[in-house]
Specification:
three-stranded antiparallel beta sheet; globular; four-stranded mixed beta sheet; alpha+beta; 154 residues
Length: 154
């Protein structure tokens, strides 16, 4: 399986260091985590919604393609975690606690979670502390520039 992320050079490695500096919908601050998407286009949308404006987007971004080997079991988040408001901001405690527990247990390499932005598509959370991370590899890292037309005032 190929997954995608848009990030800067500093966070393009499969070490999950970005999770140490801030919380996310699926982790508490201080936990190593790698957020990826099933599609490059979803990775772009995920990046866009996490900045306040186009001016806040760094100009040194890369589209990173990561190969997850066939045969790796990808856990799916249980419906019981997706309670009313799971997709809200601030993040629901159910998603944060479930994802943090997933990371700390180190039982699975990958967790498939629904995207809030495009509910019929999925993000894949990778656990850099799981031994299977060593079988994943970055297969390409291409400079990525957002088309400014996407940010025109209507």
């Amino acid at each position: 399986m190929i997954v995608y992320r848009i990030t800067n050079e500093e966070h393009s490695a499969l070490d999950g260091m970005g999770g140490l500096y801030g919380p996310g919908r699926w982790h508490k601050k201080g936990n190593l985590v790698i957020y990826t998407s099933e599609h490059a286009s979803l990775a772009a949308w995920e990046k866009i919604v996490h900045v306040a404006s186009f001016e806040n987007l760094p100009n040194n971004l890369f589209l990173v393609e990561i190969e997850i080997p066939d045969g790796i079991e990808i856990q799916t988040v249980p419906q019981s975690v997706l309670v009313g408001g799971w997709d809200s901001f601030p993040f629901a405690s159910e998603t944060v606690n479930y994802g943090t527990s997933f990371l700390r247990k180190k039982e699975h390499l990958a967790l498939k979670v629904p995207s809030v932005i495009i509910p019929t598509e999925y993000n894949i959370i990778l656990n850099p502390l799981h031994p299977g991370i060593h079988f994943c590899k970055v297969i390409s890292k291409t400079p990525f520039i957002f088309d400014k037309r996407a940010f025109k005032d209507l």
